[in-house]
Design goal:
It is a single chain. The protein has 383 residues and is an alpha/beta fold. The protein folds into two domains: 202 residues, Rossmann fold, CATH 3.40.50; 139 residues, 3-Layer(aba) Sandwich (Rossmann fold), CATH 3.40.50. Helix content is 39%, strand content 13%. It has 16 helices and twelve strands. This is Galactosyldiacylglycerol synthase. It holds the Pfam family MGDG_synth. Belongs to the glycosyltransferase 28 family. InterPro entries: Diacylglyc_glucosyltr_N (IPR009695), Glycosyltransf_28_UgtP (IPR050519).
């Protein structure tokens, strides 16, 4: 299977034993009385959404769950500075983000420096995880810091990384992390190629909750053509404006753009006839219920919500870097078609309107079932 765009020939990652230390098996019998620490990273809403869902499910079986943000765990406001720089890069120099990720290869100076930098969260992570039975990470920075603590023998409880992306950049994995959980087989294969232990689990997305009956008028949306809902994450990043114009130009749909917190984008699109611009929404299941197709550019949590709703889904004009990698991975997994050129868009929309549906990956164990019943018994063949 082809690796993600960042490396056709991945550098081998050292094993746990080579780095000095073999983590104990994962905690058996997780349940009432267990304490779990979940560490997210508020660099994107998808990491936080996955953390909330993990906490909700584990509290449902009686675990005490505390959630921390790696942004706040890095000292001297380092986490907040990194967050500001990351968001500014995506907004103003999106192409440079892809270059940055290409440079973050194991063995490179940039990779080593990044791991050292995020490792500064280690002291606060140790305090947060005191007496914990399990730590779960939903962000690469947290996973790197936690993996280092496990290898050094400072953190005695097991660590699990939940991979929120559809593709796996090497910064996501660390040989000191006991287990990496992927949403589908393509992501799991990529993670294994970087040398980590991996299982596929059922994607963490809330069961869609929407009104029993909802129509366009309830949501203030126009009648007429089928609706194509465009999503670009909570920050409305990427070529959403260009994608909306392209969709309008097909003559087949009315573009409805979820701009999130990007007020400038919303104002620009609101001035364009034929395009509906929305701000932050907490009723996406209702919005997806009246949509005929959803178009995504990041492969994040909103994509999972769309798949859970069953509405046809397309990847188009993905953001550089992880957005493009996720689009390619979702297509290889047979989940979401990737429309690479504007000339392909009319046919793709026609297919979505007439024949397509979307679905979440199925057949994998639920995360809670894995952690409570099989967490300490990773089957043979898991690499």
């Amino acid at each position: 299977m082809e690796q993600g765009w960042w490396s056709a020939r991945p550098t081998r990652v050292a094993t746990v034993s080579e780095l000095g230390g073999a983590p104990r098996p994962l905690a058996p019998g997780l349940g009432p009385g267990s304490r779990v620490v979940v560490v997210t990273g508020s660099y994107g809403a998808g990491h936080d959404a996955a953390a909330r869902e993990i906490a909700l499910r584990l509290r449902g079986i009686g675990c005490a769950v505390d959630t921390y943000d790696v942004v706040d765990l890095l000292p001297a406001r380092t986490g907040r500075l990194l967050k500001v720089a990351y968001l500014a890069q995506l907004r103003h120099l999106p192409g440079s983000w892809e270059v940055t990720l290409r440079r973050l290869q194991p063995g490179s100076r940039t990779y080593r420096l990044t791991r050292q930098l995020v490792g500064l969260a280690g002291h606060r992570l140790l305090r947060a995880a005191a007496d914990a039975d399990l730590v779960v990470s939903t962000h690469p920075f947290a996973s790197q810091a936690l993996g280092r603590l496990r290898v050094d023998g400072d953190l005695r409880c097991p660590v699990v990384t939940y991979l929120t992306d559809a593709s796996v950049h090497p910064l996501w994995v660390h040989p000191g992390v006991d287990l990496h959980l992927a949403q589908h087989d393509v992501a799991a294969d990529e993670a294994r190629r970087w040398g980590c232990r991996t299982r596929v689990v059922e994607p963490l997305v809330p069961v869609p909750t929407r009104r029993t009956s909802v129509d366009r008028r309830d949501l203030g949306l126009p009648e007429g053509r089928p609706l194509a809902v465009l999503v670009g994450g909570s920050l409305g990043i990427g070529e959403l404006e260009e994608a909306a114009i392209d969709l309008l130009g097909t003559g087949r749909v009315t573009p409805v753009v979820v701009c999130g917190r990007n007020q400038r984008l919303r104002e620009r699109l609101a001035a364009r006839p034929g395009i509906v611009a929305l701000g932050w929404r907490d009723d996406l299941p209702d919005l997806f219920a009246v949509a005929s197709v959803v178009v995504q550019n990041a492969g994040g949590f909103m994509s999972l919500e769309a798949m859970a709703s069953g509405v046809p889904l397309l990847s188009y004009r993905p953001i550089p870097g992880h957005g493009r990698a996720n689009a390619e991975a979702l297509e290889r997994a047979g989940l979401v078609p990737f429309v690479r050129r504007p000339g392909e868009l009319p046919a793709a929309v026609d297919h979505a309107l007439t024949a397509a549906t979307s679905r979440l990956p199925s057949g994998a164990p639920d995360l809670v079932a894995l952690l409570t019943g099989a967490a300490a018994r990773v089957p043979a063949g898991v690499a």
